[in-house]
Write a structure and sequence with these properties.
Blueprint: E1 2-6, E2 12-17, H1 18-32, E3 37-41, H2 43-47, H3 51-60, E4 65-70, H4 71-79, E5 85-90, H5 97-102, E6 106-109, H6 112-121, E7 128-133, H7 148-161, E8 164-170, H8 182-200, E9 207-209, H9 213-218, E10 226-229, H10 245-248, E11 254-259, E12 262-266, E13 271-272, E14 278-279, E15 284-289, E16 306-309, E17 312-315, E18 325-328, E19 337-341, H11 351-357, H12 362-368, E20 374-379
Parallel strand pairs: 2-20, 3-4, 3-10, 4-5, 5-6, 6-7, 7-8, 8-9
Antiparallel strand pairs: 1-20, 2-11, 11-19, 12-15, 13-14, 15-18, 16-17, 16-19
C-alpha cells in the first residue's frame, strides 16, 4: 500500500484505506446480485473519509453510481475528476441547478416548484436528468402522496417538452436498520404505489430505488433497480446489534491515530482535565493525546471511551477538551503511537465501540472526525513495470 498525504504538519492522522472501500463495494454488489445497480454515497466528504478517495475507491469496486447530498458536493465530485453517473438530492429554493446539470449530474426534484426551477435552468438544448423523490413515510423530503398527481403530471409535461428526462423515482426508509419494524413494509407498499402512479401517467424512470445500506442487506424485496449504500461501503454495519462489520464481511476503512505529546505521573487525589470530573484513586501515569472536540472527538466520550496505546486499552480520564484528551497509560512515553479507533483487528477500539460509549451511531463518529487532523490515504501499491 502507498500512503498519500493530504494536508500539512499534523498531530493527528486519519488513515483511509481505499482498498477496503473498494472491497466493501464488491462485497455488497455480490450480496445484491446481478441486475441491481450500486450507488455508493460519498456525501459529507465521504462520511469523513474524503470524497475523492471514497469516490475513486467505490468506482474501483464497481459502483455504477455515486450519491451526494448538495449541489456544491456534486460540483466538488466533478472537480475530483469523477465523470460517471451521479445523483444529488438537496437544494435550497433558487439554487443554481444549471451548473450541476451542465456537469452531467442527475438532480432530484421533491416538489412541483423544484421541478419548475430545474426546467428553467435547462437552456441551450441542455436536457436536465431528473429523479423524482416521493415521501413514503420518513416525512423529511419528497413529494407527499396528496401531491403525486400534480407532481407526476408536471414531470411528464416537462419531459414531453424536452426540458428534462426523468431518470429515476426514489424514496428513503425511516427504519430499515430495524428490519422487523412495521414501517418498512408500509413504506415499501407506498413506494410501489408511487411507481404505479408514475407509470400510469406515462413516466418510465430508468431506476426505482429506496434501499439504503440496511435495506440493501436485510430487505431484498426493496432493492428494485438500484441500491444506495452509504455507511456499509466504509466497512461499518448500519446496525451492529444485528450484525457486525465482520459478520457482514466488511472492513472498516478508517483508522484514527495520534502521538503522545506529554506523559506524567500523577499522585493519588489528582484531578484530571477541566472540572476535575475524574480524580485519581491511586498513583496514575497519564498520556496527553493531541485530539479534542475540534478534531471531532465527542465530549460524550469523557470518562467513557478508550484508546489503544502500547498494545493495550487505555481509559480516557476527565473531560474531552478542544485540543486534547488524557488517557491512563502505565508505560506511556512522549512519542508513543496512539490509535483512537480502527478496524479492531489488533484489539484497538472500533468506531462502533466509540458510538456505544458516546450513545450515538457509528455514522456520526466517522463523519465528525477531522478538524486539524491530516488525512492519509492508503492506495493500492502500483506494481513495477505497470
Amino acid at each position: 500500500m502507498n500512503a498519500k498525504s493530504v494536508g500539512s504538519a499534523h498531530l493527528a492522522t486519519i488513515c483511509v484505506d481505499e482498498v477496503a472501500i473498494a472491497a466493501n463495494v464488491r462485497t455488497l454488489r455480490s450480496a445484491v446480485g446481478s441486475g441491481v445497480a450500486m450507488m455508493s454515497v460519498v456525501k459529507a466528504d465521504g462520511y469523513g473519509h474524503g470524497m475523492g478517495s471514497a469516490a475513486r475507491a467505490a468506482r474501483a469496486g464497481g459502483a455504477e453510481w455515486l450519491g451526494v447530498a448538495t449541489l456544491d458536493e456534486a460540483l466538488e465530485l466533478r472537480r475530483t475528476g469523477d465523470t460517471g453517473r451521479a445523483l444529488c438530492w438537496l437544494a435550497e429554493p433558487g439554487a443554481d441547478f444549471g451548473s450541476v446539470i451542465a456537469a452531467g449530474v442527475d438532480v432530484t426534484a421533491s416538489s412541483t416548484s423544484q421541478l419548475r426551477e430545474i426546467a428553467d435552468a435547462c437552456s441551450g438544448g441542455v436536457v436536465g436528468r431528473v429523479q423524482l423523490k416521493v415521501n413514503t413515510g420518513l416525512s423529511r423530503n419528497g413529494a407527499p402522496e396528496a401531491q403525486w398527481a400534480e407532481f407526476f403530471a408536471l414531470a411528464k409535461s416537462l419531459q414531453d417538452q424536452g426540458s428534462i428526462i426523468v431518470t429515476g423515482l426514489w424514496s428513503h426508509f425511516a427504519c430499515a436498520d430495524e428490519p422487523d419494524h412495521p414501517a418498512n413494509e408500509q413504506q415499501e407498499l407506498v413506494f410501489r404505489t408511487a411507481i404505479s402512479h408514475a407509470e400510469a401517467i406515462g413516466l418510465e424512470p430508468e431506476f426505482k430505488h429506496i434501499a439504503n445500506s440496511a435495506a440493501t442487506l436485510w430487505r431484498p424485496s426493496a432493492r428494485f433497480d438500484l441500491v444506495r449504500c452509504g455507511i456499509s461501503i466504509y466497512g461499518l454495519s448500519p446496525n451492529p446489534q444485528i450484525a457486525s462489520s465482520r459478520d457482514l464481511g466488511l472492513t472498516p476503512a478508517m483508522t484514527v491515530k495520534a502521538t503522545v505529546v506529554n506523559a506524567m505521573d500523577l499522585p493519588k487525589g489528582a484531578g484530571v482535565s477541566y472540572g476535575h470530573t475524574f480524580v485519581t484513586e491511586h498513583p496514575t501515569r497519564v498520556a496527553l493525546v493531541p485530539m479534542g472536540y475540534a478534531e471531532g472527538i465527542p465530549r460524550h466520550a469523557s470518562n467513557q471511551a478508550q484508546v489503544w496505546l502500547n498494545g493495550q486499552r487505555a481509559d480516557l480520564l476527565g473531560l474531552v477538551c478542544m485540543d486534547q484528551i488524557v488517557a491512563a497509560a502505565p508505560r506511556a512515553q512522549i512519542g508513543d503511537d496512539v490509535i483512537v479507533f480502527g478496524p479492531g483487528d489488533h484489539g484497538e477500539p472500533t468506531a462502533d465501540e466509540w458510538a456505544a460509549w458516546c450513545q450515538t451511531i457509528n455514522y456520526e463518529i466517522v463523519t465528525r472526525i477531522g478538524g486539524r487532523a491530516k488525512r492519509v490515504v492508503m492506495t493500492p501499491r502500483v506494481q513495477e513495470g505497470s
